[in-house]
């Protein structure tokens, strides 16, 4: 499962295959374009350098807080204040949307700025906290990857972002490490 805030945090990309290559996708116009389109948000593209700097700081702290909470930590007052400050950068207007029985009140982001985007990301994360879903936050156990995701399995046993990719890779690595250890033992 992907959410607005995990998608945002994952703009800090690490090559899961272990090449050591990282990519700060936040700075890429192509990423900005795809991200805003996907979550129905708008802001100037390319983002200004000042905006990027603020967004990077925000992402770093969000990453840290998500990691702390996923390990059972509690949210401090300072974290609350920080989230509130981020959310105060956005404005919401209410609109009637849908037809007939689908008619509903929709809250629409009012500003087409990166501060609005940050407010939306912060609000999405706040929603995760309110719903008590922080225990499901995972950082992929492949240390090269660190992709953040929700563990949506019943028993909360999901360890890798993708079993076919990181899961398999780690299986192969464990297998090779075992073979190597055996070979050393046989030769010794
Ligand atoms: Zn992974």
TrEMBL record:
Gene3D superfamilies with a match to the protein in the record: Jann2411-like domain
Domain Zinc finger CGNR, first and last residues per copy: 136-179
SUPFAM superfamilies in the record: Jann2411-like (SSF160904)
InterPro entries: ABATE, ABATE_dom_sf, Znf_CGNR
Pfam families from the UniProt entry: ABATE (PF07336), zf-CGNR (PF11706)
Top-rank lineage group of the source organism: Bacteria
The protein's name: CGNR zinc finger domain-containing protein
Organism: Paenibacillus aestuarii
Highest classification ranks of the organism: Bacteria, Bacillati, Bacillota, Bacilli, Bacillales
């Amino acid at each position: 499962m992907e959410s607005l805030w995990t998608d945002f945090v994952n703009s800090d990309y690490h090559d899961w295959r272990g090449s050591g290559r990282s990519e700060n996708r936040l700075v890429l116009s192509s990423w900005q374009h795809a991200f805003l389109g996907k979550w129905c948000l708008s802001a100037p593209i390319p983002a200004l350098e000042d905006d990027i700097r603020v967004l990077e700081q925000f992402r770093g702290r969000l990453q840290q807080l998500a990691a702390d909470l996923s390990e059972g930590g509690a949210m401090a007052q300072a974290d609350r204040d920080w989230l509130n400050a981020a959310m105060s950068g956005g404005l919401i207007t209410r609109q009637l949307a849908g037809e007939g029985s689908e008619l509903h009140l929709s809250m629409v982001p009012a500003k087409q700025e990166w501060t609005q985007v940050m407010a939306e990301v912060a609000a999405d994360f706040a929603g995760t906290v309110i719903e008590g879903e922080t225990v499901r936050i995972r950082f992929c156990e492949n240390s090269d990857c660190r992709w953040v995701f929700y563990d949506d399995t019943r028993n909360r046993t999901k360890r890798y972002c993708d079993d076919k990719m990181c899961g398999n890779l780690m299986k192969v690595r464990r297998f090779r490490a075992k073979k190597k250890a055996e070979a050393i033992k046989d030769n010794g």
